[in-house]
Amino acid sequence: MIGAIIVFSGVILDYLKGSGVITIRYEMTMPAVALYLLLQLIAIAKDFAEGRMELIRLNQSLDEEVALQTKQLKEKNEQLEALVWQDGLTGIANRRYFNEMVANQFDHAKQQQQKWSLIMIDIDEFKQYNDYYGHVAGDQLLKVFVDIINKILPPNVLFARYGGEEFVLITQDDQAMSLAEELRQRIEHANLEHLGRDLKRVTASFGVVTYTNEETVEELLHKADENLYMAKRSGRNRVYAS
């Protein structure tokens, strides 16, 4: 608008000069046009700069949105991955994850000729606990039971829920028997009430097996299960190994 006024003024001045009304030394139309063009260039440059800044802001906003979406997607993937291997009640590894890890451990041990141990754990007379207190209380007991064990487990020990009230440990430590006995004592000394049985408190039985030259994972698991059965048959609240 200003440029147009300047050009119009220059034209008027040149007209008045040509009519002899005013006397000026220079032609005004061309400088006015040049000034108009300069103002137009400045306006275009300003608009371009503002547009560029807006584009930068949009790109930054887009980058932030992409980063946020990527972070949220990563979190969801991690949550889904956790659901695949995590026991929903206790938060420890589930049987599916255990089966994968025990197979890997077994193959590695066979190749490297390493010893490692399995510890199977079963809460004694858990059915009677559920019958006496109800399944909600039974679920709570499982959580407390897991917490007791988790607090004293050494590093690099896989702790998984095998099914129901049965749990399993994989340890590369050759002190599996002493670990199982420590866990048994901790559970017994926690004095968790169990009025549905004669002993009146919660205990657990343990079956321990150390890999030597078993041919298959199933054979090793079967031995651990047999040892757990022997611990229960011997009166429960026992650690049995062969």
Automatic annotation (TrEMBL):
<dbReference type="InterPro" id="IPR050469">
    <property type="entry name" value="Diguanylate_Cyclase"/>
</dbReference>
<protein>
    <submittedName>
        <fullName>GGDEF domain-containing protein</fullName>
    </submittedName>
</protein>
<dbReference type="InterPro" id="IPR000160">
    <property type="entry name" value="GGDEF_dom"/>
</dbReference>
<dbReference type="InterPro" id="IPR029787">
    <property type="entry name" value="Nucleotide_cyclase"/>
</dbReference>
<dbReference type="InterPro" id="IPR043128">
    <property type="entry name" value="Rev_trsase/Diguanyl_cyclase"/>
</dbReference>
<feature type="domain" description="GGDEF">
    <location>
        <begin position="114"/>
        <end position="242"/>
    </location>
</feature>
<dbReference type="Pfam" id="PF00990">
    <property type="entry name" value="GGDEF"/>
</dbReference>
